[in-house]
Amino acid sequence: MSQPAPSPARFLLAAGAGTRVVVRYRIPDGFTDALGHLVSCDAGACTIRTRQADVVIRLADVVAAKAVPPAPERRRTRA
User: Fold this and answer.
1) Three-state SS at 42
2) Coil, strand or helix: which one is 27?
3) CA dist., res. 75 & res. 55, Å (int)
4) CA gap 31, 52 in Å, rounded
5) From CA 77, how far away is CA 75, in angstroms rounded?
6) Which parts of the chain register pLDDT below 70?
7) Beta bridge partners of 49
8) Pairing of the two strands 62-67 and 54-58
9) Contacts of 67 by beta carbon, 8 Å cutoff, 6+ apart
């Protein structure tokens, strides 16, 4: 029998810096996602480096989190 999945906050606390993750978290109007690399995580918040900026997310607002594979390489444009 397999172990139950850890809570999203517990997963983020255990994941190493540099792990590519997607995190769903609460915002005033509902939910949103952050996709990027985990920069840091402590008992209160985690920081995800997305393409646009570093996003600081309170662990109390996290509803789902998981590791994701590396982004596909960008295709070169044809000349």
Assistant:
1) coil
2) strand
3) 27
4) 18
5) 6
6) 1-2, 5, 79
7) 37, 54
8) unpaired
9) 15, 19, 20, 21
